[in-house]
């Protein structure tokens, strides 16, 4: 059974975020998103108070709209990465995997709404009657907030080691392998979630194999699919635990057995390490039980490994647990120049 985030989960998380986080408890992605939007609100609010003009809220709102429009249209029209994180400065690198522009546009619009809300909220202190504008923006923001907050929860509970979107991945990959990546992604984000798909990502040091796996999981989580990242060493321990024991140790919305997409990292390092640390036969032995084999068989899994010369052995391992050949694909990423 695949798990999803319920309305009760959302209210519990919101309650925790509104109380606040400190350095000892850690900052969650949901708390970060709320803080970020408060920052956008402030960047609309404060400049409006500082500009001695009756049209100050409109001036600030238009200025931020132009800024965000440039940052959105620049990469959309040029189809190139940026050299700067603050302002779009086109680089020579084109996108390997183009961004989902609709999602980026929605994110940009959400940010703009908070800029506008801050600007018109400040105008109330200046004696301007802009309550209608504030009401309209607030109503418009209901849907974006109801989308983005749970989205951050899906990303948060995926336990990804870093925030990384697929469009940020810009290393070398064959066109045929790129098609395999897209095919796997389409299966994982399908509205009905096509299950039982397995993608092997082979590559050595610096090939970007882990980043590619994280990017795929990120795109799936953004579509509100239950995802989970783990290392092979940790998974070996989880094989021996029940779901109840796992959730008692690490409370989460789902476990490796109930997640929709599982990313297994660090199975083998690849070049420059010449030999595999764990063979396919050993991995199959570590599964312990038929229930574990069935759980792996029936979910979407990204396997991050090293040398692709062992691919037949890993393919045979999946065949042994009941995965069909049509459900397995593999990509090999060339090693980066040292």
UniProtKB/TrEMBL annotation:
The keyword Transmembrane applies. It comes from Chitinophaga silvisoli. Keywords: ATP-binding, Membrane, Nucleotide-binding, Transmembrane, Transmembrane helix. This is ATP-binding protein. The chain crosses the membrane at residues 58-78, 104-125, 131-149. GO terms for molecular function: ATP binding. It comes from the Bacteria. InterPro entries: P-loop_NTPase.
């Amino acid at each position: 059974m695949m798990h999803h985030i319920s309305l009760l989960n959302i209210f519990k998380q919101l309650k925790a975020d509104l109380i606040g986080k400190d350095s000892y408890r850690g900052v969650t992605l949901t708390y970060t998103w709320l803080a970020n939007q408060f920052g956008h609100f402030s960047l609309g609010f404060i400049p409006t108070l500082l500009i001695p003009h009756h049209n100050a809220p409109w001036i600030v709102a238009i200025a931020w709209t132009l800024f965000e429009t440039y940052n959105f249209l620049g990469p959309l029209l040029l189809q190139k990465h940026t050299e700067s994180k603050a302002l779009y400065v086109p680089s020579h690198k084109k996108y390997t995997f183009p961004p989902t522009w609709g999602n980026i546009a929605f994110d940009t619009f959400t940010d703009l709404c908070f800029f506008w809300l801050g600007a018109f909220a400040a105008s109330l202190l200046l004696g301007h009657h802009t309550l209608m504008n504030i009401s309209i923006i607030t109503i418009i923001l209901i849907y974006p907030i109801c989308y983005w907050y749970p989205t951050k929860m899906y990303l948060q509970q995926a336990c990804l080691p870093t925030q990384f979107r697929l469009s940020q991945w810009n290393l070398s990959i064959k066109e045929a392998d790129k098609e395999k990546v897209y095919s796997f992604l389409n299966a994982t984000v399908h509205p009905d979630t096509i299950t039982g798909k397995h993608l092997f990502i082979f590559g050595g040091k610096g090939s970007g194999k882990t980043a590619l796996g994280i990017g795929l999981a990120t795109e799936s989580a953004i579509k509100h699919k239950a995802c989970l990242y783990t290392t092979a060493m940790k998974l070996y321990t989880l094989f021996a635990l029940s779901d109840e024991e796992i959730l008692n140790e690490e409370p989460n919305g789902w476990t490796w057995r109930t997640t929709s997409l599982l990313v297994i990292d660090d199975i083998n390092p690849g070049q420059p390490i010449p030999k595999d640390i764990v063979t396919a036969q050993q991995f199959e032995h570590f599964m312990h039980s038929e229930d574990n084999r069935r759980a792996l068989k029936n979910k979407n899994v990204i396997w991050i490994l090293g040398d692709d010369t062992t691919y037949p052995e890993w393919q045979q391992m999946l065949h042994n647990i009941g995965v069909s050949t049509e459900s397995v694909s593999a990509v090999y990423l060339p090693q980066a120049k040292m």
